[in-house]
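F.,

This is the one I mentioned.
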């Protein structure tokens, strides 16, 4: 379960970075 939460958090952060670059 921890792995899944980490993956979701990492994906969320990637989306934030994408918004910043956009």
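My design for it:
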């Amino acid at each position: 379960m921890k792995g899944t939460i980490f993956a979701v958090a990492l994906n969320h952060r990637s989306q934030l970075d994408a918004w910043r670059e956009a």
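Residues 2-21 form the longest helix (20 residues).

Talk soon.
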